[in-house]
Every structure is written in C-alpha cells, then in structure tokens.
Amino acid sequence: MKVVKFGGSSVASAGQIDKITKIIVSDASRRVIVVSAPGKRFSEDVKVTDLLIQLGESVRIGVDNEKAYQQILDRFEGIIRDLGLDQKVLEQVVKKINDSIFRIKQQDPSGLDALKSCGEDGSALIVSAYLNHEGYATSYVNPKEAGILVQDQPGGALVLDESFDHLYQLRKREEILVIPGFFGFTKEEKLVTFSRGGSDITGSIVAAGLKAELYENFTDVDSVYCVNPMLVDNPRQLTSLTYREMRELSYAGFSVFHDEALIPAFKQKIPVCIKNTNNPSAPGTMIVADLPEREHHVVGIASDNGFLNLYVSKYLMNREIGFGRRLLQILEDEEVSFEHAPSGIDDMSVIIREHQLPKQKEEIVIQRIKDELQVDMVLIEREMAMIMLVGEGMNQTVGIASSATSAFHKAGVNIEMINQGSSEVSMMFGVKTEGLAAAVQSLYRTFFD
Ligand SMILES: Nc1ncnc2c1ncn2[C@@H]1O[C@H](COP(=O)(O)OP(=O)(O)O)[C@@H](O)[C@H]1O
Ligand SMILES: N[C@@H](CC(=O)OP(=O)(O)O)C(=O)O
C-alpha cells in the first residue's frame, strides 16, 4: 500500500484535480490520499490557506472581510463547477467555513485553527466526490475518524504516538480513502493545525501508521534539486537522499518538503518519493535510510533569510560557569526560540529568526542581558541569512570548508559566522542577506558545476 500526498499546487484547480485523479487510479496500491488546500495557480495567485488566515484574523478583531470570504468561496465554487460536481459538495464546504467563522466570533480559542483547516477539508471533500463521480469507490476520512491525535499547540501541533495504532485500522478499508492534511485533534476533540506546510507531516504520519511500502509526495517540480531553483537556473536534480540529509536541507530552506515530515517516515523506515503531478513519469527523488557512499560529499546547498544574530561578549566568559544557560534562560523566559548558538572564548552568538524577536521584545531582552549578565557588549545584527552545505560524510572529508570559503571569497561575500561540527551532515555559514544569492551561486559552481 502507498500513501500519496498532493500539495497545494496539485489541487489548485479542476484541471490539477483531474490530473491527480489519473495518477491515483493508475496504480491500485495508491489507496490512501492526503491533500493540501488549493494553492497558487500562477505566481501572483494567493493560496486558500493564506486567504483563510486573513479572514480569520479580521473576524477575530471584529472586522468583516467580505473580500477574502468571497475569494475563498469563488475558489471552491470554480473548482466544483469545473469538475461537474453536485452543488451539495459546495454547501458542505461553505457550511464548515461559516461554522468556523461563527466559532471565532464566539471567542472559541480553536476557531482560528478550525477556519485554517477548511482549505484542506474542502480539497478532501472535492477530491473524494470527484473520484466517486469518475466511478472509483472512495471515502472522505476526517482526521478525527482516522485517529490523528495531537498535542494542543495551535499552529504547531505535534503528533501523539497512539495515532499510529489508530491509523493502522484504516488498512481494513477497501475503498480509496482521502484524508485532509494539516490538522489533527487533541484528546479533548479540539482541532489543531500543524505548522505551515504541514500537510507533508500528515502524509508522513499516515504512511507510518499504515506501515505503507512508500510515501509519495506529489508537488510541482520533477525532483528535489541540489539548490533552490529560484536561485540557480536548471540546477542538478537529486535522485536520492538520506532522511538526515533531507531533514537538514528542509530545515535550512528547501521548502519542497517540511522538515518535521521526515521523522514519522524515518521511524518506520518508509521510503519517501518526491514526484511531479505535472510530469508523473519522471522518477523523482527517493529519500531513504542509507545510501552507498557517493562521489559528491556535498549533496545540497540550502539557504534562507530572515535571521538575526544576538551577539554577546564578556571578558572571561569561558570561566563563568552557567553563562550560556543564563543567556538562553532569558530567551526562554521571553518565549524566544533560537536556531543556533556558536560560541568563542569571550563571545557567544545566538542565531534567531527575526520574527521571534520583534522590536519591543528586543528591548526587554537586551536590557535583561545587560542587567543580569553584566556583559561588555550586546548587539543585534538583523538581515542575516544562513547557508547550509549538507551531505553524509561531508564533515569527514578533507578540504570541503576550504573550497566553501574560497567560493565565498570569489563571490565577494564576507562570512559572518561558521558553524561546523554540531551536525555530522551539515556545515553552516552566516552572511548578510544582500550577499545570499551571489554566495549560493558561487558555492553551486564550486561543488556542482
Ligand atoms: N531544492 C529545491 N528543490 C525543489 N524545489 C524547491 C527547492 N527549494 C525550494 N523549492 C520550491 O518548492 C516548491 C514546491 O513546494 P511547495 O510550494 O510547498 O509545493 P506544494 O504546492 O506541492 O505543496 C517548488 O515549486 C520550488 O520552487
Ligand atoms: N495549506 C497549508 C498546508 C500545506 O502543506 O500546504 P502546501 O502543500 O501548499 O505547502 C499551508 O499553506 O501551510
């Protein structure tokens, strides 16, 4: 049995849904389907999830947002009409949206997540109705019925282990099952969404629970490329990767697959295949537990911007037991999550996503660091970007760091920070955002051209 997830671009229009229907029925082992909310049809288009979030935020502060509401309804109405489906499907979708809006108005704390989930829920209702319409016995299965249990962390749900046994029961079902991605339920039956892009996580959880032979993840590119295709034209395709490599690459910016989606599949050793809905015969990228040693130790270059560096220096920091803990404790108290914390003899940098530390929080954090840690200097450098070289065995290979630093030199980009060794499969560089593209392109030429 295969579990197949279709991303937002694969369910963005009636034409795309017709394509995925053909993909599903072309292989009898594609029995359990996970779908995202309708995504972008063209580059300036807006994802239904973004519209739902806009709408929910407006309703929460007591403002009507007729424009977003109408855009959402138009997306679903258009898809249902173009697929020739019964108006009852649209009524079901609209009822769930209206019920969620009502809950937000009633100050129900789970109302916003309930509204966010309507994109995936609507897609699942439509895809299951269309498969039936085309003559293939299919059921819509809500995550509550499937038994996807999560912790109560709205917008960042974490799966509970008992979910996997519940999901295994779905193996008994004979028809095709369509499950909306992106959300689960707490034991108290509260709907909670995963983080953005989280339908990949649902797919992985479902594949692990069902002990599937393969988790296929259909998107809009032929494979995972060794670098973001927005930064380098026509980059090299990756035919295979290990779970560890893919997790590091996803975490560091390969938005094609959610970094949290590797873990459930990894625990059950279920291979993951990334494929293209618009070109399903292309082999795609296989993600597996182990691979024989490859010629190229660097398999990918991931990058992301939107970071800041919280830099702290204090003479004899190395002698002060507990300094690092107390610095990180201040961040914990102020609910700031950090990404990396490289340190020297008298200094420590903490790399944080910029949105974690808005200006007013920044002032509090800086003041506390000055007052409680009596540092010589504390400063914040914004507009930082991180670049990660990833590959199994890379850190044991002589000369990688030297080739990388010469690539930065050729691009004329100063390295603000290097972090090597914390992970066995990656090496990280911090640069100013303005140098990101040039540095990545130069690294690509060095390691792949
Ligand atoms: N290294 C990479 N390899 C492939 N795609 C990448 C990479 N980095 C970023 N992407 C982007 O990820 C996109 C697919 O992910 P996403 O937009 O989440 O798709 P979906 O709509 O299927 O959920 C691609 O269109 C591509 O622009
Ligand atoms: N629709 C959700 C979840 C998701 O996985 O979407 P996509 O498959 O379009 O990345 C989001 O936009 O976050």
From TrEMBL:
The keyword Ubl conjugation does not apply. Gene3D superfamilies: Acetylglutamate kinase-like, Aspartokinase, catalytic domain, VC0802-like. ATP binds at residues 5-8, 219-220, 225. Keywords: Amino-acid biosynthesis, ATP-binding, Diaminopimelate biosynthesis, Kinase, Lysine biosynthesis, Nucleotide-binding, Transferase. It holds the Pfam family ACT_9. It catalyses: L-aspartate + ATP = 4-phospho-L-aspartate + ADP. Residues 389-449 form the ACT domain. GO terms for molecular function: aspartate kinase activity; ATP binding. InterPro entries: AceGlu_kinase-like_sf, ACT-like_dom_sf, ACT_Aspartokinase, ACT_dom, Asp/Glu/Uridylate_kinase, Asp_kin_monofn, Asp_kinase, AsparK_Bifunc_asparK/hSer_DH. GO terms for cellular component: cytosol. Its EC number is 2.7.2.4. Pathway: Amino-acid biosynthesis; L-threonine biosynthesis; L-threonine from L-aspartate: step 1/5; Amino-acid biosynthesis; L-lysine biosynthesis via DAP pathway; (S)-tetrahydrodipicolinate from L-aspartate: step 1/4; Amino-acid biosynthesis; L-methionine biosynthesis via de novo pathway; L-homoserine from L-aspartate: step 1/3. It is an enzyme of class 2 (transferase). SUPFAM superfamilies: ACT-like, Carbamate kinase-like. The keyword Amino-acid biosynthesis applies. One of its GO terms (biological process) is threonine biosynthetic process. Signal peptide: none annotated. Substrate binds at residues 49, 120. PANTHER family: ASPARTATE KINASE, ASPARTOKINASE 3. Catalyzes the phosphorylation of the beta-carboxyl group of aspartic acid with ATP to yield 4-phospho-L-aspartate, which is involved in the branched biosynthetic pathway leading to the biosynthesis of amino acids threonine, isoleucine and methionine. Belongs to the aspartokinase family. This is Aspartokinase. It comes from Halobacillus locisalis.
